[in-house]
């Protein structure tokens, strides 16, 4: 927008303290929230101690419904709530773009989800305040706040290798939400079609072929973002904790520290964030 004549020009000063996520302000406080991680095969939920980023009590898992009917999903989420849930707020993950509590993409789940509100019906069904967040963004928040990327400044890229490839991009600890880097195309093939956990099965890749495909995807992605650190998480990393030894990538690589709990912990943590407009409903954003 062109500047009006006489308009005041405000100099934007880089202020590191303001660029940290709210994350840091919660450190040391005794807080709890519920994390609900919606995956293709199961929905997992637990109460999370946000001081330590650790689960408290039972981690309940129920089979995912067909992912097509919103009402069935709400019932499954209610069934996944652990007994110690009390009236705690909840964060819920979804394997697609989520903006303002509404789902906008559904690459690996029923397309019926596109355009569906998720946070609002979940809040009504679970009778508590709920925020919704992309699954990889949740896992990334957990790794940045409590895990492998804790206190790492600069550009951090967290990639989850599962049915798809999810991505979470951080700059000085602050999330750039809803990056969908698993859908980047290299040589006419999407990254996740080439090197996700599912791609490994479907393309019947042996370990060394899979490692070279994944190295290729990571190297090409690195060439676009030049991250200071790449953190890999997702099912494959739990089964192969020494995976990074077999990869050739020109960037520091780490395996996520929270393993299978990253989604739950990150979702719970996201429910406490008061900034980051992506988690609030559009009305809330508009009225700010
Ligand atoms: C989706 C992402 C999601 C990832 C992992 C991709 O296909 O587009 O939004 O984070 O899978 O579930």
* Count of the domains: 2
**What are the distinct ligands in this entry?**
beta-D-glucopyranose
Pairing-aware structural class of the strands and helices? alpha/beta
| Computed CA radius of gyration, to the nearest angstrom | 19 Å
Q: What is the CATH topology descriptor of the largest domain?
A: Nucleotidyltransferase, domain 5
Largest sheet: 5 strands, mixed
Strand-residue proportion: 15-25%
Low-confidence stretches: 1-29, 280-288
Order of helices and strands: HHEEEHEEEHEHEEEEEHHHEHEHH
CATH top level class name of the largest domain: Alpha Beta
User: Any idea what the CATH superfamily of the largest domain is called?
Assistant: ATPase, nucleotide binding domain
Name the helicity range.
25-40%
How is the quaternary structure best described? single chain
So what's the overall shape?
globular
Termini gap: 22 Å
In DSSP terms (H or I, runs of 4 or more residues), the helix count works out at 11
- Looking across the biggest beta sheet, what order are the strands in? 3-2-1-4-7
Number of strands: 14
Overall pLDDT level: 86
Could you say what the CATH architecture of the largest domain is? 2-Layer Sandwich
